[in-house]
Fold:
Amino acid sequence: MIIDKVYFCWAFTIDAIKSIMDKDRKTGESAEGIFFWACDVIILDQIDVQQKVHFLIKLILKI
Structure:
């Protein structure tokens, strides 16, 4: 079997992004935490196995 496509993403919650930005305000990163930038990001309500599986099933059915 040859796989010709590979998909990936980073999964975050809004709370996780806020936490990263708060940390960046303290450390001076990301222009003192005024922005969050990442490629290939998916934002989920919560990061748990059930939520990730549900998301992946929905995503795969659309591809």
Observations:
- The chain has a mean pLDDT of 89.
- The radius of gyration is 15 Å.
- Helices lie at 14-27, 29-33, 49-62.
- Strands lie at 10-12, 41-43.
